[in-house]
């Protein structure tokens, strides 16, 4: 076998960057498999399972394991690896002085308004604490952050007059800057406080399609409105938007909060009207919530764009299996509620993202699951915007075409706007061409899928 | 509440996934990227606990504030017997406590020389025998007695000590008198010329300096060090400017105090560019000691080596030592010596780095950049990297070449563990074999285990 296995001590790159490097190597001719990853137990095990003779290493080391068809192809892959790693190193070190090594040092040298933390969860606390201690608001994109650290950060932030967005905060828009997974939204009067990233993306994308923009979208993290965290950040974010002259109406997007938290939020006595988009049994779906916002603003509710697939024999027969393969947690929960039945998987859940990139960036697991569906109906989401996959239809459309050829009905909810770099309509058209029914409303997509499954 | 980030142009610090930073670049949002790496292996859990300690932030501010506000004054020169209460057979040494059995060549050599100097043995063999038997001999760490000593750092009762008082916080610290270069006791040499020189220092140099200081009054070392930094010293491997300034301050008083001895005393001081080192060390010691004992503080208050172990002490952890094996310096060698002749790292002079001088002030000393790689930019890189692991910038000790930025001062154990950046330490290199003396000078890295061990201890402190 033509294997290249090496450990580079002390060389660090983040998991998304390494995924891109691995993918670039896999695309070289003759390369059967390429693992370029930090040498965590998980990744070492993965390489061993692939039959590589892996030496001992620590999580601070870079693991390289490449298998090619011939020595020449292996050599070519090795050269490509050096090019890739050098390009990534250069991107971070273009300034004359050495880049800062901690958020604390960066805050000293750079007059920032906030920090965006996306290091692995067990290390996020230190960086976020640096930001708060430096008087900066912070968005913690990282998940797997212990709840006691979240509480400590939020208490400190309140004392310092700054906001902690997260942990596990997927999206935010602050002063027009999209942070994390963020759709390109027009400026406007709606302020959003969101304990749910993809929920906020759905609501704001629909508002954008209806011509209504946002002032700010402040994520607070999925646990913020739980009894343990007590809405610490939501309360601060609501007060901050209430104080913001550009915000005329506030939308609170969350799973239904713990009762005492709901009370605390209700007792805030804000002067700005608040529309709650609370996801759960007996609550409005996100599309209905967006429509409520439009009515509150005195705007018309448009027909939400959709691209139907040609009807086929055998569709909508009772008893067909429905599988939901989601990247967005809230979207997944909403679809499960609307569909009422079927097997739903949230590939963005912590248990799937430990040691690997989010499914909105790394499609591998979802793609594998889609390929494994032999019949019935598949419901998926595709979330566009900054930070997300630059061209999801490039890998999804062929897989949909294969699935449709197997007799599977595919329904896709595309969450995005016309301003998104991927282009909402172009992506939707390509998925539709491949045979999928495409919706901009996740709830509408779920209803359609339920119908196809005979429900 | 008014949240400032909602108003004005967003400017973002990004740390973590590059793809999220690049998304901001595409939106033309100004940002600064952190070159993040995982912390030292095994440090994650302890880091989370130490960083969550509610006392930490203010404790560190208090501790480093005390270190930086210290005003070291050279107040006198006195025999160790008087000021440190040393009795016959009692010796202090550099670094964490060590026994004769574990002592390296230069440490044994210096102790042997001190035995001869004190008249406790007639020959080196007899001295070694008595030291090995331990009968009537007591060894202890200088740092346990408000004292520091360069290289082996051996202090015996008859040696004369520089006395430095902190006019701000009231502490006092001591360091022996510098013997010069070549074959000297602190590098483990104990030949007749070494003992002869120590006698002269005790009989002439010490008393003359004491009398001169009585005449001219205390010398403000904080100001002197600040000036020397602006004249190209970093105060550890280069002390030429500081020594010259000291001579300028004290020479008239020496002449007045001892007209018939003044010439030989001044000639001796002038012949040794490192004469000031010991005064600078005492100044650094008294400053670092002012920062001791602040509960919850992760500030390093001492780094010291005994030739076998490298040890640190931390403000919030009392007098406990956290040690790892002393490394062999990477450096330049004198004459025919090479790396095989080098002893592992030794000496209390790392107190200069502890206080924000030495390797941390490397950018101030372009004349000695050969130690750090040859280019001035290497010296600048060495200093700027130390801002990553320090809590403050020294208000008085400034570096002209960095726009008069204060030197990086106050090492934080937690920042060392987070960044994996170890303190840059400038050092002399002692010969491995007792009696050799100095063989070179260079740079050395402390063992990371000393810092992670201190971090673990902070969890329970």
Structural account:
The complex is a heterodimer of chains A (455) and B (461). With 455 residues, chain A is of the alpha/beta class. Chain A folds into three domains: 2-92, 2-Layer Sandwich (Alpha-Beta Plaits), CATH 3.30.70; 103-296, Succinyl-CoA synthetase domains (Rossmann fold), CATH 3.40.50.261; 306-452, 3-Layer(aba) Sandwich (Rossmann fold), CATH 3.40.50.261. Helix content of chain A is 39%, strand content 20%. Chain A is built from 16 helices and 18 strands. Chain A has a six-stranded mixed beta sheet, with helices on both faces. A four-stranded parallel beta sheet of chain A has the order 10-9-11-12, sandwiched between helices. In chain A, strands 1-3-2 form a three-stranded antiparallel beta sheet, with helices on both faces. In chain A, strand 5 (137-140), helix 6 (147-160) and strand 6 form a beta-alpha-beta unit. Chain A starts with a strand and ends with a helix. The model of chain A is unreliable at 91-96 (pLDDT under 50). Chain B folds into three domains: 4-36, no CATH class; 56-67 and 293-459, v583 domain like (v583 fold), CATH 3.90.1700.10; 72-281, Enterococcus faecalis V583 domain (Enterococcus faecalis V583 fold, Alpha-Beta Complex). In chain B, 37% of the residues lie in helices and 20% in strands. Chain B contains 15 helices and 18 strands. Chain B has helices spanning 18-26, 44-52, 56-69, 80-83, 105-117, 124-133, 192-216, 221-230, 240-257, 262-270, 277-290, 351-354, 376-386, 413-419, 448-459; strands spanning 12-15, 31-33, 72-79, 90-93, 138-141, 147-148, 160-166, 172-176, 219-220, 300-306, 309-314, 322-325, 330-333, 346-347, 390-399, 405-411, 425-430, 438-444. Chain B has a five-stranded mixed beta sheet. Chain B has a four-stranded antiparallel beta sheet with strand order 12-11-10-14. In chain B, strands 13-18-17 form a three-stranded antiparallel beta sheet, with no helix packed on it. In chain B, helix 1 links the parallel strand 1 and strand 2 (31-33). In chain B, helix 3 (56-69) runs antiparallel to helix 11 (277-290), helix 5 (105-117) crosses helix 7 and helix 7 packs across helix 9. The interface between A and B is large, with 81 and 52 residues.
């Amino acid at each position: 076998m033509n294997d290249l296995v090496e450990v580079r001590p002390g060389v660090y790159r983040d998991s998304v960057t390494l995924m891109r490097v691995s993918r670039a190597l896999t695309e070289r001719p003759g390369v059967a498999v390429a693992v370029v990853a930090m040498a965590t137990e998980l990744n070492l095990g993965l390489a061993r399972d692939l039959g590589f003779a892996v030496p001992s290493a620590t999580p601070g080391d870079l693991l390289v394991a490449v298998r090619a068809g011939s020595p020449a192809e292996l050599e070519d892959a090795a050269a490509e690896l050096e090019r890739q790693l050098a390009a990534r190193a250069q991107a971070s070190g273009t300034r004359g002085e050495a880049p800062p090594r901690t958020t604390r040092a960066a805050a000293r040298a750079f007059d920032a308004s906030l920090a965006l933390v996306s290091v692995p969860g067990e290390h996020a606390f230190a960086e976020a604490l640096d930001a708060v201690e430096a008087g900066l608001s912070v968005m913690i994109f990282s998940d797997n952050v212990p709840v006691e650290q979240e509480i400590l950060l939020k208490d400190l932030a309140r004392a310092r007059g700054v906001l902690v967005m997260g942990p596990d905060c997927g999206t935010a828009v602050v002063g027009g800057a999209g942070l994390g997974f963020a759709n390109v939204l027009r400026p406007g009067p709606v302020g959003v406080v969101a304990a749910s990233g993809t929920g906020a993306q759905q609501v704001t994308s629909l508002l954008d399609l209806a011509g209504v923009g946002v002032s700010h979208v402040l994520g607070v993290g999925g646990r913020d409105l739980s009894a343990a965290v007590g809405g610490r950040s939501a309360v601060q974010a609501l007060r901050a938007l209430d104080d913001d002259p550009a915000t005329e109406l506030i939308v609170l997007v969350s799973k239904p909060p713990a009762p005492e938290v709901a009370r605390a939020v209700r007792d805030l006595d804000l002067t700005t009207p608040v529309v709650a988009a609370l996801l759960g049994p007996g609550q409005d779906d996100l599309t209905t919530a967006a429509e409520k916002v439009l009515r509150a603003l005195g705007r018309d509710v448009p027909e939400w764009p959709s691209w139907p697939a040609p009807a086929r024999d055998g569709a909508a027969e009772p008893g067909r299996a429905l599988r939901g393969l989601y990247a967005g947690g809230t979207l997944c929960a909403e679809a499960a509620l609307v569909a009422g039945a079927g097997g739903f998987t949230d590939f963005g859940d912590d248990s799937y993202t430990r040691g690997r990139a989010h499914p909105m960036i790394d499609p591998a697991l979802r793609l594998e699951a889609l390929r494994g569906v032999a019949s019935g109906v598949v419901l998926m989401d595709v979330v566009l915007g900054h930070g997300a996959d630059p061209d999801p239809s490039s890998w999804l459309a062929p897989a949909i075409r294969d699935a449709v050829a197997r007799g599977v009905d595919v329904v896709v909810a595309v969450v995005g706007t016309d301003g998104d770099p991927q282009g909402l309509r172009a992506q939707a058209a390509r998925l539709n061409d491949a045979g999928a029914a495409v919706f901009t409303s996740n709830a509408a997509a779920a209803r359609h899928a339920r119908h196809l499954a005979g429900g | 509440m008014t949240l400032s980030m909602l108003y004005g142009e967003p400017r973002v610090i990004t740390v973590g996934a590059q793809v999220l930073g690049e998304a901001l670049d595409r939106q033309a949002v100004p940002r600064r990227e952190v070159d993040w790496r995982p912390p030292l292996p095994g440090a994650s859990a302890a880091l989370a606990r130490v960083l969550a300690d509610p006392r930490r932030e203010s404790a560190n501010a208090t501790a480093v504030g005390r270190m930086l506000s210290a005003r070291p004054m050279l107040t006198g020169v006195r025999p160790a017997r008087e000021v440190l209460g040393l009795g016959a057979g009692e010796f202090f040494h550099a670094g964490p406590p060590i026994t004769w059995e574990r002592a390296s060549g230069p440490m044994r050599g210096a102790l042997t020389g001190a035995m001869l100097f004190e008249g406790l043995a007639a020959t080196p063999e007899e001295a070694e025998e008595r030291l090995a038997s331990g009968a009537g001999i007591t060894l202890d760490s200088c740092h346990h007695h408000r004292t520091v000593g360069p290289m082996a750092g051996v202090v015996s009762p008859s040696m004369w000590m520089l006395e430095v008082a902190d006019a701000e916080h009231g502490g006092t610290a001591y360091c022996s008198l510098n013997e010069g270069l070549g074959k000297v006791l602190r590098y483990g040499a104990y030949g007749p010329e070494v003992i002869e020189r120590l006698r002269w220092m005790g009989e002439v140099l010490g008393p003359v300096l004491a009398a001169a200081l009585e005449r001219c009054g205390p010398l403000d070392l904080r100001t002197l060090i600040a000036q020397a930094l602006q004249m190209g010293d970093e105060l550890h491997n280069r002390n030429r400017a500081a020594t010259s300034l000291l001579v300028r301050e004290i020479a008239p008083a020496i002449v007045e105090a001892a007209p018939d001895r003044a010439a030989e005393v001044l000639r001796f001081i002038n012949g040794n560019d490192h004469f000031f080192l010991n005064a600078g060390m005492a100044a650094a010691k008294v400053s670092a000691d002012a920062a001791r004992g602040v509960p919850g503080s992760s500030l390093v208050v001492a780094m010291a080596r005994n030739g076998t172990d490298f040890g640190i002490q931390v403000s919030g952890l009392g007098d406990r030592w956290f040690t790892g094996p002393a490394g062999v310096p990477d450096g330049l060698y004198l004459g025919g010596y090479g790396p095989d002749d080098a002893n592992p790292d030794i000496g209390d002079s790392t107190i200069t780095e502890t206080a924000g001088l030495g390797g941390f002030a490397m950018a101030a000393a372009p004349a000695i950049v050969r130690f750090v790689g040859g280019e001035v930019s290497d010296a600048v890189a060495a200093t700027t990297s130390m801002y990553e692991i320090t809590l403050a910038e020294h208000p008085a000790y400034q570096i002209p070449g960095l726009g008069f930025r204060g030197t990086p001062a106050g090492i934080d154990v937690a920042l060392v563990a987070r960044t994996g950046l170890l303190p840059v330490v400038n050092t002399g290199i002692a010969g491995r074999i007792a009696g050799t003396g100095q063989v070179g000078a260079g740079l050395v890295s402390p063992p990371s285990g000393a810092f992670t061990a201190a971090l673990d201890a902070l969890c329970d402190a």
